[in-house]
């Protein structure tokens, strides 16, 4: 393999994402069984977020101590007397996923290794310990998402999707998929229960009449009335597949749906790099194109957000241009950008 094979990073990222995914599942089981955590407060997802970030950051630090991490969470609310109860729960859960146990101080330090500002230079990891927190709480889709970015380019992505069926055609079958991609090396899926990887590819759609598109469950995250108009213009007749988290990128990468639309609901919201880094590389390695609503590539070099992009449009390379045309017609009918 070439010097840029990222074989070590790939193996470590898989281990970290699997360990964190297991911790998230453990929190959810406790939540539904009502053992130590109750569904009434918002804490289950918060506890899972912190624990998963601690697990991934800790595993990354063992192998790549010099690498900065752009993680969604920080340990502010876990500090002091006010954070004691939550801190104790997070410590117990994080340690359940780690070989080398952390103590309280190390836990906080480990979570706060995720506060890196990002930028255009050097290596950094982007981590969303639970993407799709709303889906997690509903018992639906969520994903542990980890990416390696080098000089502003996403080079590697690993996503753990504990509630995603291995085969979309068998929704009641085994759940728990891991998606793995390295730039130039293709896109792969494996089960949580086996290390055998299978190559995946986007469906090579000939006619959009047979296609379906996916979008967020949350109307506050993506404009669902505009997406309906775009779908209509493209001749898509099927109802949208609404799904939380980067599971959408994973789904289209293996051909479950043809298009992913994420249309801005506010002019000021900036998409976060950890919400898109791993998923966007998976789609491009599976034969797709990912851009913003103007057709501009996502720029991961601007810090913690995609500050120069607006929304996300992902589709098979063959149809991406047509989708962007429809997006432009609906979002900017006057032709102004
Ligand atoms: N106004 C907004 N527009 C777009 N995305 C938003 C948003 N507010 C929050 N989000 C992001 O949407 C992500 C979930 O994506 P989706 O809606 O596709 O499931 C959230 O990730 P977290 O759940 O990790 O916080 C959050 O970062
Ligand atoms: Mg997220
Ligand atoms: Mg998150
Ligand atoms: Mg969040």
UniProtKB/TrEMBL annotation:
It catalyses: 3'-phosphoadenylyl sulfate + H2O = adenosine 5'-phosphosulfate + phosphate; adenosine 3',5'-bisphosphate + H2O = AMP + phosphate; adenosine 2',5'-bisphosphate + H2O = AMP + phosphate. Its EC number is 3.1.3.7. Keywords: Hydrolase, Magnesium, Metal-binding. One of its GO terms (biological process) is sulfate assimilation. GO terms for molecular function: 3'(2'),5'-bisphosphate nucleotidase activity; metal ion binding. PROSITE patterns: IMP_1, IMP_2. CDD domains: PAP_phosphatase (cd01517). Gene3D superfamilies: 3.40.190.80, Fructose-1,6-Bisphosphatase, subunit A, domain 1. Its cofactor is Mg(2+). Mg(2+) binds at residues 72, 128, 130-131, 275. InterPro entries: DPNP (IPR006239), Inositol_monoP_metal-BS (IPR020583), Inositol_monoP_superfamily (IPR051090), Inositol_monophosphatase-like (IPR000760), Inositol_monophosphatase_CS (IPR020550). Belongs to the inositol monophosphatase superfamily. PANTHER family: 3'(2'),5'-BISPHOSPHATE NUCLEOTIDASE (PTHR43200:SF6), PHOSPHATASE (PTHR43200). This is 3'(2'),5'-bisphosphate nucleotidase. It comes from Podila minutissima.
């Amino acid at each position: 393999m070439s010097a840029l094979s990222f074989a070590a990073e790939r193996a470590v990222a898989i281990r970290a994402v699997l360990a964190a995914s297991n911790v998230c599942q453990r929190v959810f089981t406790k939540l539904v069984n009502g053992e130590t955590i109750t569904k009434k407060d918002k804490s289950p997802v918060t506890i899972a977020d912190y624990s998963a970030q601690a697990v991934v950051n800790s595993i990354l630090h063992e192998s790549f101590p010099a690498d900065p991490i752009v993680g969604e969470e920080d340990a502010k609310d876990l500090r002091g007397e006010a954070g004691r109860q939550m801190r104790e729960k997070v410590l117990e859960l994080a340690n359940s996923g780690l070989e080398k146990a952390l103590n309280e101080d190390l836990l906080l330090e480990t979570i706060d290794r995720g506060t890196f500002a990002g930028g255009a230079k050097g290596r950094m990891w982007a981590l969303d310990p639970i993407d799709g927190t709303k889906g997690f709480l509903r018992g639906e889709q969520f994903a542990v998402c980890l990416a390696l970015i080098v000089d502003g380019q996403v080079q590697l992505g690993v996503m753990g999707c504990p509630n995603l069926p291995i085969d979309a055609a068998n929704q009641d079958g085994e759940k728990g998929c891991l998606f793995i991609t390295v730039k130039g090396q293709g896109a792969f899926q494996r089960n949580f229960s086996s290390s055998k990887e299978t190559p995946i590819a986007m469906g090579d759609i000939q006619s959009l009449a047979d296609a379906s598109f996916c979008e967020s469950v949350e109307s506050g995250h993506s404009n669902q009335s505009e997406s309906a108009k775009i779908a209509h213009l493209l001749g898509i007749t099927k109802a949208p597949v609404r799904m939380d988290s980067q599971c959408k990128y994973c789904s289209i990468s293996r051909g479950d749906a043809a298009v992913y639309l994420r249309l801005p609901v506010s002019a000021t919201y900036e998409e976060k790099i950890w919400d898109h880094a791993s998923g966007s590389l998976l789609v491009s390695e599976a034969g797709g194109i990912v851009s913003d609503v103007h057709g501009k590539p996502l720029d991961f070099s601007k810090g913690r957000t995609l500050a120069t992009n607006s929304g996300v449009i992902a589709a098979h390379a063959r149809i991406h241009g047509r989708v962007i045309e429809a997006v432009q017609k609906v979002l900017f009918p006057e032709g102004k950008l």
